[in-house]
Amino acid sequence: MVFKAVATDIDGTITDESRRINISVIRAFRNLEKKGIKVILISGNVLPVTMGFKIFIGTSGPIVSENGGILMYENRIIKNFEKNDIESAYIEFKKIKPDAERIITDRWRETSIALVPTMDIQSVKNFFIPLGFRVEATGFGIHITHKEQNKFFGLKKAAEILGISTDEIVAFGDSENDVEMVENAGLGIAVKNAWEIVKEKADYITNKKFGNGVVEGLKRLGLI
Asked: Is the pTM above the cut of 0.90?
């Protein structure tokens, strides 16, 4: 298989537990881009944050934010979902769980909401899942999205934009919201620090953590 793009989660995959980006990843991604291999940044984070990574790293592929909720490519923004129904549900949840605080970047979130990671996730699931929503933890927040909204959904949209198949994409991830992407991309790679649920679906698990694992995977495939 000839891979035409590399898709990667950001937090916990190309960054460490303190959210510091691995400099070797930047070099690796720029090498990929020079070879004509598009790098797709795909995150649960908000579009402004993902866009910042894209600009400063120097990637040219589409960026996918909010777990597939919103995409951007060549200054065109594609919004796949609205969040009014989630916002309404959150207002009711907040009445019974006053400690249900949202993460600071939620002010820029357009298709979903995210609660602080210290929130009791089971209580969040018990309330939102019966209403038809999706609840996922990442270690950096608890994401409440639409049922169909996930990173592989976003990856398919990104592949369509590039005119390629998802089978031609290598995907890297580490946490719960990366499962569908890692499982269904052409090749799914879990970094060593990934959650077990991600490792179970991956084609390959790296021997190194975080960004070093991403570089390891790219070298193993002969892409850099």
From this structure: yes
